[in-house]
């Protein structure tokens, strides 16, 4: 059984590979990929794969973006840090979810499930729509932040999420910007913010910006099939450009 591991934490990838090879002598780790970009590059080569273990949150985005850029022909088992209640909701699906850190018993159960479904899985290609539906159900069990606490001088202020137009990174710091154009530094990474904010309201258009629709003043066609966003309040982080790979997903997110 040839397996691809998509995981951005080296130790987690090595641990999972070791557990898989210990679980069954016929398992071969065909390759590992530490990012959305690397996974897409590898899958475009159409390697022979029987199964993929895929972390949801990668360093350069959510692994769901992989399915927007390349056809994934092998069944997928996601490894995820979502709460166990949400994970259990998908135990009836042919695509399984394992809670991190991966437990040996759960891993064996997932492999057994794959073997039972293997004849059907061999002719089925995971579809983006089904993955989006699964993600939406997962999100239904997740509580997103309703406010952020920011420091202003010697005082702490609470900023409701509903009043936040965008989050952005600039000079190794991360900021939020309100509907009034005020900016506050916050102690979160952009990757953490993706998991803490409602993806129905905020979209990460590139590595530096996570925005809501109300933040956008204008959208311009840009070079190399990209989009340039003009925000209602400018930020010191410069131009907001949507990469070519994210343009279609961004348009779909806007046109809900």
- The number of strands is 17
SSE class: alpha/beta
Order of neighbouring strands in the sheet with most strands: 2-1-3-6-7
Major beta-sheet overview: 5 strands, parallel
Envelope shape: globular
User: How far is the N terminus from the C terminus?
Assistant: 40 Å
Low-confidence stretches: 121-128
Question: Could you tell me the strand content as a percent range?
Answer: 25-35%
The whole-number mean of residue pLDDT values reads: 83
Rg for CA atoms? 20 Å
Helix content: 25-40%
Summarize the helix and strand pattern as letters. EHEHEEEHEHEHHEEEEEHEEEEEH
Please report the number of helical segments. 8
Summarize the SSE layout with pairings.
Blueprint: E1 2-6, H1 10-23, E2 28-33, H2 36-44, E3 51-55, E4 57-58, E5 61-62, H3 64-69, E6 76-80, H4 84-88, E7 97-99, H5 104-121, H6 128-140, E8 147-152, E9 155-160, E10 164-170, E11 173-178, E12 183-186, H7 190-196, E13 203-204, E14 209-211, E15 216-222, E16 226-231, E17 240-242, H8 247-254
Parallel strand pairs: 1-2, 1-3, 3-6, 6-7
Antiparallel strand pairs: 4-5, 8-9, 10-11, 10-14, 11-12, 13-14, 15-16, 16-17
């Amino acid at each position: 059984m040839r397996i691809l591991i998509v995981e951005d934490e080296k130790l987690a990838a090595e641990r999972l590979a070791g557990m898989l090879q210990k679980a069954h002598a016929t398992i071969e780790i065909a390759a590992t990929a530490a990012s959305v970009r690397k996974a897409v590059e590898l899958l475009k080569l159409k390697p022979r794969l029987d199964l993929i273990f895929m972390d949801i949150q990668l360093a350069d985005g959510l692994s769901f973006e992989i399915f927007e850029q390349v056809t994934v022909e092998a069944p997928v088992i996601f490894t995820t840090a979502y709460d166990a209640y949400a994970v259990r909701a998908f135990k009836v699906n042919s695509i399984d979810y394992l809670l991190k850190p991966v437990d040996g018993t759960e891993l064996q159960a997932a492999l057994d499930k794959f073997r039972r479904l293997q004849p059907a899985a061999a002719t089925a290609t995971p579809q983006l729509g089904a993955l989006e539906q699964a993600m939406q159900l997962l999100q239904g069990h997740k509580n997103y932040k309703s406010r952020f606490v920011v420091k202003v001088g010697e005082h702490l202020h609470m900023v409701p999420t509903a009043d936040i137009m965008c989050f952005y990174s600039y000079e190794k710091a991360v900021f939020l910007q309100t509907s009034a154009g005020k900016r506050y530094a916050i102690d979160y990474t952009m990757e953490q913010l993706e998991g803490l904010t409602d993806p129905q309201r905020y979209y990460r258009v590139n590595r530096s910006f996570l925005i809501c629709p109300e933040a956008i003043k204008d959208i311009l066609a840009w070079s190399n099939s990209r989009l340039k966003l003009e925000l209602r309040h400018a930020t010191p982080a410069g131009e907001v450009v949507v990469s070519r790979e994210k343009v279609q997903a961004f348009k779909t997110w806007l046109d809900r």
